[in-house]
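dumping the sequnces here before i forget
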Amino acid sequence: MTCNNCQNSITQNAVFCGKCGAKKEDSKSTSDYNQHIKKIAFIFFTLVTYITVLNLSEITNNKTNSIIIDVIFSVIVLLFTFYDRQTIKRILQIPKGNKKTVIYIVIIAPILAFLVHHFADLLNERLFHQMKISDVYQTSFSIFDFSISVLSIAIFPAIFEELAFRGVIFQELTKITNLKIAIIISSILFTILHFSLISILWIFPIGIVLGYLRAKYRTLWYGVLAHFIYNLSIIILEKL
Amino acid sequence: MSKKTSGQLENERRIQKNEIKIIDKSTCYYCKSTGLKEEDKYCPNCRFPQNGPQIEMKRFLINIKKKKQLLQDQKKAVKKAKVILFILAGLNFLTAIILGIIINKNIDLLIGGLIGGIAYLSLAIWCKYKPFAAILSGLFVFIVFTLMNAIVDPHTLYQGLVMKIIIISGFIYGYKGVKDSEKLEKELIALKESKDLEENNDL
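..and the predicted 3d for all of it:
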């Protein structure tokens, strides 16, 4: 091996060139670290800014508006995904027949939704003396309204929140830290983006479970499925 | 030949006393790595100027001292960020007790303060084990909590603005401290680790 600076021959376990003192070429760039953090912060705060602006602009919470809001959110997430498409492509592949996991998800997600729904209702009734968790989950009984609710509460968040938090952000986090920490940080970000203090109690553990699914199976689809079934169950429980 | 004054002799003695004497040229004076070649000006393991002038050797040792001092400063910045997390937890608990129980008797404020307090307290405790993750999360949580308050009452965004800037700066310095101190610590440990440089000769 030769020094890049003075062409002097250097031993394998040397760190510096003995002749000129130049450091041996290191493959890992220190600026990469900052780049990943900046990217995570940029993605997260773009979404936070969007939600803050929505909340401050007093847009009426009707069905059409909620679909428009979701579409804009999805476009933002898709733009970030497109920018990172090479790495995201791998986790977007459909997992090969792990029926056991799918069955577990289909059984556990509605049970979890049932428990969270009753816990939240209990908190609302006992502590806040209200009947509903929030207006978001209030749905009427027409098929059209139900479909809009499913689209806005179950389908859009399941796909695009997973793509943002367990996709782009998680992927960036794994480049600078280990899987465990990536799961925790992505869950914290996922929790606080919901802008609700009380729901930290259940969104954070759910985020950990979704992060675990993403890390264990190296695919986004189990998380999407679990998220979809959980949110769908919440809608159905609200209507019952 | 002119006789040297006692002052000159004292000066010479002092210089000789502080002089770095290399006894074995094949062993690095700083990291004790063995197998250094005769023609090597620098130690290939730690870059100590083994065959360089005295001033360069001393400069190297001063630089190491400076780096150790810098490491201490960076660790202090991490500690400060941890203290900020504890303070935020305390403030949230206080708000919950004072506004939620004593003055307003408002359950929303009580629950909100308690949850916020627990969140910051957990991050402060986590900071002991994983400072990078805890400080980064703390920064994000603080910004989002501030925005959540601003949504309820936009005036809160400007209230205590200087304090908010200090807290955010504290987190940023803490985060930078973690990152830089980890790197510097590794570098200093690697410099002190002696190696046998004769092994695996020229490839």
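Chain A touches chain B at residues 1, 9-21, 23, 30, 33, 37, 41, 44-45, 48, 52, 55-56, 127-128, 177, 181, 184-185, 188-189, 192-193, 195, 197-198, 200-201 (CB under 8 Å).
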